[in-house]
Amino acid sequence: MWHVKKYDELELDELEEILSLRQDTFILEQESFFRDIDGRDQDALHVFKKEDDRIKAYCRMEDEDDHTYISRVIVNPAYRGQGFGREIFRYGTELAKERHPGKIIRITAMSYLLDFYKSFDYEPISEEYDIAGHNHIDMELTP
Predict the structure, then answer these.
(1) Percent of the chain predicted with pLDDT > 90
(2) pTM for the structure as a whole
(3) How far is CA 98 from the centre of its chain?
(4) What CA dihedral angle connects 24, 29, 30 and 35, to 10 degrees?
(5) What is the set of domains in the chain, with CATH numbers?
C-alpha cells in the first residue's frame, strides 16, 4: 500500500524505519559519509510503499519555489531485485506531477544510475561531481 505523509503524520515506528533504511543504505552500505538527517525532513513529503508492516521502498519529495525535488530514493535491501526501485520512482514522479503541475522535477542521481533515470525521461543538467566519494549528476524532468 502506498503512503504519502507529512513529517508530523508519520508514526514513530515509520520514522525510525525510514531513518534506519537511509542510514543502512547510504551511510553504511554505500559508505557515503554525509549528513542524512539534514533538517529538511520536516518540510518534505515522505512517500513509501508499505506491506506486511515493512517499508519496501521510499523517497522524499520537497516543493521548492521553481521545482519539485525528489531525493533519498531507496529500496529496502530485503526487497531488491523485485522492481520496487522502478515502482517508487515512477510513483514519486507521478505524484510530483499531480501535486505540482507544470513544475520541473529535479533529482541528484548517482552517476551509475544515469540510464535508469533517463528511462523516466529525466535529462542531465550538470556535469558529474563528487558527493561523499561518489559521482553524482543533477537531472530534471521538464513538464
Answers:
(1) 86
(2) 0.92
(3) 17
(4) 30
(5) 2-141 (3.40.630.30)
> From CA 63, how far away is CA 50, in angstroms rounded?
23
Q: What is the 3-state secondary structure (H, E, C) of 35-102?
A: CCCCCCHHHCEEEEEEECCEEEEEEEEEECCCEEEEEEEEECHHHCCCCHHHHHHHHHHHHHHHHCCC
Burial class (CB in 10 A: 0-12, 13-18, 19+), 127: exposed
Place of cell 521502498: 57
Report the alpha-carbon distance of residue 59 to residue 95 in Å, rounded: 11
List the chain residues with pLDDT less than 50: none
